[in-house]
Amino acid sequence: MSSNFTKVENPVLVVEGKQADNERLKAESDYLRGTIKEDLQDRMTGGFTSDNFQLIRTHGMYQQDDRDIRAERQKQKLEPLHNVMLRARLPGGIINPTQWLAIDKFADDYTSYGSIRLTTRQTFQFHGVLKPNIKLMHQTLNSVGLDSIATAGDVNRNVLCTSNPVESELHQEAYEWATKLSEHLLPKTRAYAEIWLDEEKVETTEADEIEPILGSNYLPRKFKTTVVIPPNNDIDVHANDLNFVAISEGGKLVGFNVLVGGGLAMTHGDNSTYPRCADDFGFISKEDTLAVAAAVVTVQRDWGNRVNRKNAKTKYTLDRVGVDTFKAEVEKRAGVEFSESRSYEFTHRGDSFGWVEGIDGKHHLTLFIENGRILDSERADFAGKTLKTGMREIAKIHKGDFRLTANQNLIVAGVAEADKAVIEQLARDHGLLNDGVSNQRKASMACVAFPTCPLAMAEAERYLPTLVDDVETILEKNGLKDESIILRVTGCPNGCGRAMLAEIGLVGKGPGKYNMYLGSDLAGSRVPKLYKENVDEAGVLSEIDALSARWSAERNDNEAFGDFVIRAGIVEQVIVSFKDFHHA
Ligand code: SRM
Ligand code: SF4
């Protein structure tokens, strides 16, 4: 879907006004160094001070504290128990068993939650790393060829790639492009190597030499890139600034359709913010990929709003300057003309679970990991499962690699016929593989939210398992036992669980309260529409009960829930323009 805002009269290319404070801190940071090194030595506080609090994000870390114990510590007049969350860089989500064993051990030895959390962007996070262990964490990652550069902050983030283990040749090529894009768009400053790996500082003075693509002030806001292989839109293109849709002929990649300007976040009560689908710019041959990527990034770098961070992402730049103007500038800078888009179709999202055989004769096992949380736990929703131990045992014997999906799941990839049985048994023994998981559970997803996310307004990850229990019961009662609805929960309107591309999206409004959005489609080409505001958990269930009863009784053959709610007039389709999202 494209927005109707292709042309804007007299577009404002650069927004004038007092720049956001993040612009000052990036400018003064000496290419993302700040005083992080000195701050790290300061053990008077467990946190990072002043600008370093923000700057560590560009090194892949966020300062957090456990919100479950925040009030209690305040009462005791104690500083919040500061720690960091680390997010690794893992283009295309591929990680090998040696790397897995290293992160598994680090999570046990040095994180307060003891978990590895798979994210909606094909990587993993550690939560709860204390200041004295941060450097060791980076050195551990480095020792196995991993890093966390630019997984957060105003830079290009982890580059996604469709998890497609079946067509392995095409997947391999697409994955290589994801890696090349990640490298090409990565900050070139040596700040990460100097601070965390104790490498020598190399003096360079020319800004253009240091950051030829990102520039000395980096991007106005976060930037997200994907490579996607139709027909599976598993990475959700419309959540991303820049997407390369793989076009193949005879199983070989020939080029990409380029989609620009997707994004899902909004702020409650601020109608200048809205989710937006990406626009189709046209087809390019694969040789032009890096030039086009750099051009899109530099146009956004130069024209993105540096005054108001709420309107700074590429989606807003496109609506302000017009898609045509943006696209023409990309063509000029890349020296490439987009040709007409090649035809392709997205038919579905999500992952297919269980074993599949690739065209290379290798076997691939996709495991469903609820909420992406890999942990051995006594928690009720884990029912005594030992997911973390299970993954460790598999990693010890696995000769292929692991692929993290953009839906918080994991593929044990490249298994020889002879090793299938033992891997499957380990997965079953530790609760990583369970034939009883319902289609509804597999179609449900939530962001992290409490207790670690400082922005959470309502529960998400901790709410999802019981919510799905209840929805399963409702669907069965309404004669829909094996059916599913793409159901996603996010603890606030930032949208990390991609609720704004769900058939039912619950967006946290306050403790126990959600705004309910309805009407995305199976392919993820539509943003859902607000249905009810401030619904409590009981209300969520009674709404789902009533809506699914109607779906069961009135649906056309195989009609998906999201299509039904629009056809039945329960919500209107968001079609006009995203600027009018809140009013249509
Ligand atoms: Fe996100 C901020 C977690 C995917 C939009 N996101 C955060 C922070 C770091 C909170 C913060 O700023 O302090 C959350 C940390 C929680 C925690 O304790 O771990 C957080 N986001 C996540 C993850 C872990 C959710 C998950 O359950 O998997 C995902 C990590 C992705 C990764 O590996 O890089 C995650 N975040 C997303 C997505 C989905 C996607 O990209 O496919 C979105 C919506 C798409 C988009 O960008 O429009 C998303 N996160 C945000 C935003 C809103 C950005 C904006 O445009 O305004 C924020 C807040 C911000 O940047 O100011 C945010
Ligand atoms: Fe936190 Fe909100 Fe993102 Fe959920 S959607 S992880 S609550 S920022």
How would you explain this protein's 3D organization?
With about 575 residues, this protein is α+β, with helices and mostly antiparallel strands. The chain is about 30% helix and about 15% strand. It is built from 18 helices and 20 strands. The protein has helices at about 20-25, 35-40, 50-55, 70-75, 95-110, 135-145, 170-185, 190-195, 205-210, 290-305, 315-320, 325-335, 385-395, 420-430, 440, 465-475, 535-555, 560-565; strands spanning about 60-65, 85, 95, 115-120, 125-130, 160, 225-230, 240-250, 250-260, 280-285, 355, 365, 375, 400-405, 410-415, 445, 485-490, 505-510, 515-520, 530-535. The strands form four sheets. A five-stranded antiparallel β-sheet has the order 1-2-5-4-13. The chain has a five-stranded antiparallel β-sheet with strand order 3-14-15-12-11. A five-stranded mixed β-sheet has the order 6-7-8-9-10, covered by helices on one side. Strand 11 and strand 12 (about 365) form a beta hairpin. The chain is globular and about 70 Å long. It starts with 20 loop residues before the first helix and ends in a 17-residue tail after the last helix. Mean pLDDT is about 95; it is low at about 1-5. Bound molecules: siroheme and iron/sulfur cluster.
